[in-house]
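Look over both lines:
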Amino acid sequence: MTGCTSLHRRRSRILLAVAVAALSVGGLTACGGAEPLAAATVTVWVEPPVDPASQSTPEQATPTTEEEPTIAATLRAGHLNDAVSSYEQAQEHFEEADKSVEVAAFRSPSGNIYCQLGPDFAACEVEEGRVEPPVDGICRDSDADDVGRLELVAGAVTPVCNTDSIRDPEARKLAYGRIAEVPGVDVTCLSEESGVTCVDPNSEHGFFIARGTFTTF
């Protein structure tokens, strides 16, 4: 037999497991003298574990919000001559009034005070006799530095440092001692020589306004 046949016989005596292992590593050497196949090399990159304590988290800016000033529900400003200063006092004045008139916008007989009525609101402003705010913060967001209008909305009264006007020079004059009312609207206003008083009976809040003075209650 040739040398190759003898070689195969000797290898047949080797355990099968050894032969399989040899084949998986490099393969058998052929009689022709071919070099065994080189094992493939795989490179694996492993990232080192990151310590959470070593990670820096950028500080986030905390938004700062400037708090709105709280305006007291009860204010007194100006000379306060004959000013109505409470809901109970306003009721007494309304009970002494002559009669009610259906009107949604009116002027005082002097023409200095103008008012509007609507669903759950009343607003009155003076043409002359604006008043310096009795507390800080009232004119905060306005170009004006004095109060010219009061607004009763949803049971709360807001003094307004207005630069605009709701005035209608053609509005009807409401005689002294008369109450302005609108059908279906609870808010009413009373015209008197001393000024105009508007109230919301549901919340029992209101205001008084005149030349050089106002109150809220």
Observations:
- The first strand starts at residue 75 and ends at 78.
